[in-house]
Amino acid sequence: MKENFPETCQIPKLFVFDLDDTVWGPELDFSMKKPVGYLKDIQEILIELHKGESFKNSKLAVASSSGVPKRGQKKLKEMNLSDYLVLEDVFSFIEIYRKDKDRHFHALNEKTGIDFCDMIFYDNQMNNHEIVKKLGVTCVFTPDGLEKKLFQKSLENFPSKDGKIIV
């Protein structure tokens, strides 16, 4: 993926992703028999975040509220991003359990030592953003998965001003 954001752009220290309907679909809680696949441009974006020189000082995390956390953890181990990389390989921190997102972020803050204002969060549910933005996290609304154009916009607008959710 070609990086087109300004050189003066501040890069988040922690990129946090919800899983269901943001990274993959359909939701694991409701689709026990349907195949799960990547949405939009997420594979390319995650590989770039993992390997790209511009992101060498950043970490990636998962914040997923799920009633089937073991199934989510299994999918992270199974889903290939490339020939030599599975989804789990790109995430340094994984929080998957049925709680409000602020609990996930407090756990991530404690584990990483990264301030909330240095985090960016991608999720398809606006109610999660309403909770997380109060912590000072930059939030990006991904109603249909994350596209390169929205990812670019999120970097250009990081950190978000006054708790504004990037759409």
From TrEMBL:
InterPro entries associated with the record: HAD-like_sf, HAD_sf, MDP_1_eu_arc
GO MF, any single term: acid phosphatase activity
UniProt xrefs under Gene3D superfamilies: HAD superfamily/HAD-like
Secretion signal, residue range per the UniProt entry: none
SUPFAM superfamilies hit by this protein: HAD-like (SSF56784)
PANTHER family named among the record's database cross-references: MAGNESIUM-DEPENDENT PHOSPHATASE 1 (PTHR17901:SF14), MAGNESIUM-DEPENDENT PHOSPHATASE 1 MDP1 (PTHR17901)
Protein name per UniProt: Magnesium-dependent phosphatase-1
Organism: Oikopleura dioica
